[in-house]
Structures
1.
Amino acid sequence: MKMVGEFFRNIFKNRMMLLMVLPGALWFLFFSYLPMLGTVIAFKEYRFDRDGFWASIVNSKWVGWQNFKFLFSTNDAFIITRNTLLYNIVFIFLGLVFSVLLAVILSEITNKRLSKIYQTGMFLPYFLSWVIVGYFTFSFLSSDRGLLNGLFNSLGIPPVQWYSESKYWPLILVLVYLWKAVGYNSVVYLASIMGIDRSLYEAAMIDGASKIQQIRAITLPLLKPIITIMTLLAIGKIFYADFGLFYQVPRNSGTLYGVTNVIDTYVYRGLKTTGEIGMSAAAGLYQSVVGFTLVMASNYIVRKYDKDNALF
Amino acid sequence: MSQRKKKERDFHNLSTPMNITFNLIAGIFAILCVFPFLFVVIISLTDEGTLAKNGYRLIPEQWSLGAYRYVFEMGDTLLRSYGVTIFVTVVGTIISLLFMSFYAYAISRKSFRYRNFFSFFAFFTMLFNGGLVPTYIIVTQFMGLKDTIWALILPLAVNAFYIMILRTFYATSVPEAIIESGKIDGAGEFRIFIKLVPPLSLPGLATIGLFSTLGYWNDWFNALLYIDNPNLVPLQSMLMRIETSLQFILQNAQNSSLGLEAMRSIPQDTSRMAMVVLATLPIIFAYPFFQRYFIQGLTIGAVKE
C-alpha cells in the first residue's frame, strides 16, 4: 500500500515531465509497439473482420510456421535476400571509397570558394525524392526518346529496351545510388577532415612530406574511427533496402524483378498488389529479426573496437 | 609583397597540376550531380512536336513554353497537390518539432525520474520494428487513418533518431545551472522549457526542423500506402500517379477507342517534365541556404551524452 502511495507521489512530482513525454510516448505506442505485437499476423491466415482490428487478429486462423514455410519454399525468398544483401554490400563498399576519396579531394582544393561551389552541386541529389530521380533516370533510359538511345542511334548502335533488359540493372542501380549518396556522404567526411588539427600538416610539411604522404599518414588514419563507425552502422542496416531506389527507378517493371526485387519491395507488393498478407508479414518479420540481430552484432563489434562510438 | 605571399601559399599547398586534377574531378562530379535536373528543365522547354521527332535532346531544335502553359491551364491537379504538400509539410513539421522537442527535453533532464525508461522506450524502436504489414493494418484498420490527411502527417511525426540527437543537444547546450536559477525564480518546469530552452537550443531545433520539412516535402510512400482520394494526393505522389496511369493507358490503348480519349487527358512528356521542374524548384532555391544545417545534423548526432 505504501509503495503504491509512493508510486503516485512520484508520478505527481514528475507530472510536468510526464506530460511532456506523453504525445511522443503515445506515438511510439501506436506506430511502433502495436505493430510489434501485430507481427503475430505472420503466424496467422489474416482475414479482415468487420468488428474491427482486434476481432480480425483474434478471429484469424492460427497457422503456425506455415507462412514462413511457403515463403522459403519459393525461389523468392532466396532472390530477395540475395538482392538486398549484394546491393547493400556493393553500396557500402563503393559508397565509402568514393565518398572518402571525394572528401579528401575537396579538402585539398586550394580555392576554397570553388570547393564550396562543388559541394553545393554535389549536395543536390540528396534533397530530391526518388520519384524525381525516377524521372531523371527515365530521361536517360526511355527506349524511344531517351538520351542514351539517342546517342546510340547517332553512333549506329542499335537501341536498347532498358526497362525490360534485366542484365543492365545491377549497374544502373549502383550508379544511381552512388549519384544520390556520394555527395552527401563526402561532405560529412569532409566535416571531420576539417576538424583535424592543422598543425599536424604543418609539422609534416616542415619534415618535407609530400601531399600524398600527408594524406596517407595523417588524413586517412584520423578518419579511420568515423569510417569504421559509419560502415558498421551501415552493416547493421544491411538487411533493409532503400524502397524508393528499387521501386521508383526501375518503374516497377515486372520483367526486371529478378534483379530489382528486394525484401522491402517484396513485402510491399505482397501487401498491396498480390494480397498475400500472411507471407508478406512473414517476410517482414524475417527482415526485422535478422536486422535486429545484425544491429546488435555490429554494435557489439563497435563497442569492442571503440567504446565511445558505440550506438549503445 | 603579394608575389611572395603567393609563393608561400604555393609552397604550403597542392602543386599546380594536382590542384587542376582535383578541381577537374570535383567539378565534373558536381556537374554530373546537377546535370539531370538541367536536362529535365531542357526537356520541359522543348516543343512537343520536336520531341516526338527527335527524342530528348540536349539542344532542342525548337524551344517552347507550351508545356508550362498547359500545366497552368490544367492547373487544378498541380495546384491541389501543391496545397496538400504545403499543408502537410507545415503542419507536420510543427507537430513533429513539438512532439520530439518535448520528449527529448524531458529525457535530457536529470531530475526526471523516469528518464531512463522513456529513453529506452524511444531507443528500442530504432533497433526493432514490426514491419510494413502490421503497421499498415494498424494505421488503416485500427486507427482508421486511410484516406485522411493524417495518414500523411502522423507516420512521419516522430523519429527516435532525431529525438536522440535533440536529447544530446539539450544535455550539452542547456546548462543545468540555468534551469536551476529559473526554478529559484519560481518558474515551473513547463515555463522554463518555453522561456529558457528554445533560445539556447535553436540550432538543434532548426536542424531537426529542416530534416522534417524535407521528409514531408519529399514523401510519397505514405500516400502510396494510404491515399486513394484524388483530393489528398501530395505533389510527389501525383507525379508518380501520372506515370502509372500513362502506362496503363498505353497498354490498353490498342483495345479501345476509349484509350485514345483518355490519352488526350494525360499530360504529354514535356508537361510532365514541367511538373517535375515545378515540384523541384522550391528545393533547388532553398537548399543552398540551409545546407550547413544538414551537415551539422550529422555532426551533432555523432556526439553522445
2.
Amino acid sequence: MAGMELRRVGGMSADTLFRRITGTGLLILFVVLAGLIVAFVGYSNPLWTIQSPIEFLTSSTWSTGTIDESGQTVDALYGALGALFGTAATSLIAVLFAAPIGILAAIFLVEFAPPRIAAPLTFIVELIAAIPSVVFGLWAAGDLSNRLRDTIEWWIASSFGRFLPFLSEDPESPAADSVFRAGFLLAIMILPMVVAVSREFIRSVPISLREGYIGMGATKWEVIRDVILPTARIGLIGGVLLALGRAIGETIAVTMVIGNAEGVPSSLFQPGQTVASKIASNIGEASGEIAIGAMAALGLSLFLLTTVISLVVRVLVRRFAVTGGRV
Amino acid sequence: MATEKRDTENATTGAKDELAQAAARPAAQAAQRASASEGDSGRLTLDNVSARYGAFRAVKDVTLAVRPKSVTALIGPSGCGKSTLIRTINRMHETLPGATVSGSISLDGVDLYSSDVDPVRARRVVGMVFQKPNPFPTMSISENVSSGLRLTGGTSKSEIAGIVEDSLRRAALWDEVKDKLNQPGTSLSGGQQQRLCIARTIAVKPRVVLMDEPCSALDPVATLKIEELIRDLATEYTIVIVTHNMQQASRVSDETAFFSMDDDRAGYLVETGPTAEMFTNPKQALTEGYIQGRFG
C-alpha cells in the first residue's frame, strides 16, 4: 500500500497550497488598492456635478457656499490651488535643506567617520527617523517655530525680502505660523531618510573604483567629487525623491505649525496650508456629499502625486541597477 | 631646503624636489615628464619593509632592489602578502583604516615615506593597475584615459587629446576604440577594460607601474594580450607585477621574487633573482617546491 508520506495533503501538493496562501496575501493588497481608488473616485464624483476638475486645480477659493431661501447650497466653490501650492512649497523647502545636508552627512558617515564612530552615529540617525511626527509637531509648535522665525526666517527676509516679495516679512509683526517653518520642520523630519538612503548608495560604490582613482593620484575630495557622487547620483536622486514623497504626505506636524490659512499666501513667511493639512483640519466639519467629495478630491490628488513620485523613483533605481552596478 | 631651487622652471630639478612639491603647479607635469627621461629611471629600493593591518603583520622585513625598466614578478602562495607589499609602494596600503607601513621604500633615491612627500603626488609617479578592471563607469573611454591628467591640471585640451591617443596606442587599444572614444569605459570587454586601465595609468607618465594580478579576471586570449603589452611597456617603465600564475611570471618577468608565509602568517621574501634562474635553479628548497607545484 502507498505510504502515508506519499499522499497529497487535502488533494493538493504542499507547494500548490503554499502558493495559494501567499497569493491570497498579494490578492488582498490589490483588492485594498482597487477598493481605495474606486471609493475615492466615487466619493469625489458629486463634486464634479457643481464644478470641473480644472476649477478644483486652478482656483484658490475654498467656499462651502451659502444656503438660499429654498434651502439649496449656492456659490460653493472648492479650489485646491492654495493647498497644492502649500504642499509644493513646503516639500520643496524641505528637500532644499534636507538634500544637501543629508548627502553631506552620508558622505561623512561612509568616507570619513572611523568605524567605531560610524556605527553609533548611524544608530542615532535611525533613532531620529523613528520619532513620531506628532512629537516633531509639538516641538515646532512649542519652541522651534519661534526660534526659526527669529533666526533663519528673519535672516532670509531681511536679506532678500526687499527684492523678492515672496520672501518678505513684516518685521513689526511676523506671522505666528508660516509655510517656510512648516517646510523647515519637514526638512528635519525627512533628513534621516535622506541620510539612510544616500549612505546605502554611497556605500555601494565599489571600493575598486575608489582605489582606482586614488591610485591615479586623486585626493579624497576628488574621489568623492569625480567618482563617488557621479556613480551614486541616480540613487541619491532616488533617495531625495523618496523623502520628497514623505514630505508631501506628512500631515500632523505640518498641520500644527502651518497656520491653516486659506488661499495662496503672499509670502513663504505667511501662514498657509498643504493638501494633507487641509484634509486633516477640514474633515471634521465636512458635511454633505459635495463637501466630502471635495475632501476625496484632495485625497486623490495627494495619492496621484505620491504615486507619480514612487514611479519615478522606481525607474531611477532600476536605471541605477543597470548602469551603476556594472563595473 | 631643496625647494628654493624651484624658482627657475628649467632648473635641473632633482627627484627629491619633484616629489616633495606638494602644491600642484602647471609646470610640474611637464617637468615630471621631462625628468622621467633623464636620471629618474624608476629604480625602486625596498628596505626592511613591514606592513600591518592593525596589530597583524602581513609583510615582514622585505628588502628588495627592483631593476629600473624591467619587469619584476612577485610570486608565492595565497596570503603571503604580495598584494599588500605592492600596495605599500604607491602608498595605497595606508588608505585602509588601521593599516601601517614601516621600513623605507625609495624611488630614484627619494624615500617615498619621507614626511615631505605627498602620498597623492607619489601615486602619480607610481601608477597602479588593479586585479579587476576598474574603468570609471561615469566617464567615457577618453575621459578615463585623461582622468589623471585632469587631476594634475595644466594640460591643455589639445595636448590631452594627443596624450589620450598616444596612451591608447601604447596600450594596444587605439584601433579598437578610436571610433567610440565618447562611449563609457564600461562598454568594453574585460580585456579591453584592463588595457584601458593600463592606458589610463601610463597617460601621466609614471616611472613605476604596479600591477596587482592584472589578468586574474581575464580569459586566456585577453591575458596573452596584456602580457605582450607588459613586455612592451618594460622598455619605458619599471613594472612590478603580482601574479598567481607561475607561467605568467616566467613569460613576462626579468626578475622574480618568491614570497612565503611564516608561522605568524606574516609574508616574507624567500629569495629573488633573474627569472630564468629562479625557475630552473632556485637556491631555496621552498622556492623549488612551490615552482614545481608541490605546495601553494
